[in-house]
Amino acid sequence: METTTTVKGKSSSTRISRNVQFTLCGSCYWCASYLDGRGIEKCPACGEQRVELMPLAGNEMYTFDYEEKQGVTVDFLPLKIAA
């Protein structure tokens, strides 16, 4: 599935990427938003090959939290664009 993510300003919108993915390392919990859709095979922080990609819809955003006792929490939410 291919999506387009845009940033809306006062008078125009600019396309960032057609394919946005949340990227998370299962070993060290390094994470990033990956914009070109190809992904990565190896974590740039720890070198492990446990990187997972989760695609985001064009109208979706996420919040990420890590706590030592609870672990990783990722919430996916609808994107709210001010009119």
Global mean pLDDT: 75
Runs in which pLDDT lies below 50 for 5 or more consecutive residues are 1-13
Domain count, please report it. 1
Largest sheet: 3 strands, antiparallel
Keyword list:
flat, 83 residues, two-stranded antiparallel sheet, disordered N terminus, 7 strands, single chain, 0% helix, mainly beta
Structure overview:
The chain has no helices and 7 strands. It is mostly beta strands and 83 residues long. The protein has one domain. Mean pLDDT is 75; it is low at 1-13.
Write the layout of secondary structure elements.
Blueprint: E1 5-8, E2 13-17, E3 20-25, E4 31-34, E5 51-56, E6 60-67, E7 71-78
Antiparallel strand pairs: 1-2, 3-4, 3-5, 6-7
What's a concise summary of this model?
This protein is mostly beta strands. It has strands at residues 5-8, 13-17, 20-25, 31-34, 51-56, 60-67, 71-78.
